[in-house]
Amino acid sequence: PADILIHFPKAAQQTAYGISANRWSAPKSLMELAQIMDKNKNTRLVFSNTSYGVYKNEYLETTHYADIRFIPELNTANRREGNHLYVSAGISYSNFIKLLSKSLEELQPNDDKTSTMGTSALSALDYMAERTAGRIVRNEASLGGNTLLVLKHIHIGSGDPFPSDLFTTLFALNASITYFLLGIDHKFSEH
Length: 191
Hints:
Blueprint: E1 24-25, H1 30-39, E2 43-46, E3 64-67, E4 79-81, E5 84-86, H2 93-106, H3 116-130, H4 135-140, H5 143-152, H6 165-172, E6 180-182, E7 188-190
Parallel strand pairs: 1-3, 2-3
Antiparallel strand pairs: 4-5, 6-7
């Protein structure tokens, strides 16, 4: 087939009216994110930006958006080791459901490696993840973003709590979270 060249009109190549191109960044490392957050005090972290549909008013105060999808530490390999699942902050609900299904298939209740309780916990997670939002949101929304919304809205007076059934299930199962905290030295440390 011949090469096809489609020319876009000049007007289509401009940013939308009223939108500043310098309000968005896409850091490729935690160090780069730290620099962005240091320079822009009111930075909103977005992964797939699905919270816009829930908390539109919070966006009015935001002066800078950092798209964190490309930071490797937030997208580590998801895996199962024994009776433990390790998932990255960047895993989408849809991929989390696939990981749960695969783990449930591998861990049979009669297997010596697991107990009925282990498969019940995975089944509970699968049940709640499958019931979160619609397929379009599940394909985009990340577990890290969901967790961030829950934690951000726990504080008294910060708005309505984010109703995350999955986070409630993770809490009930005593799941632990590893997170990165930006210190006064302008560097992230893992906790």
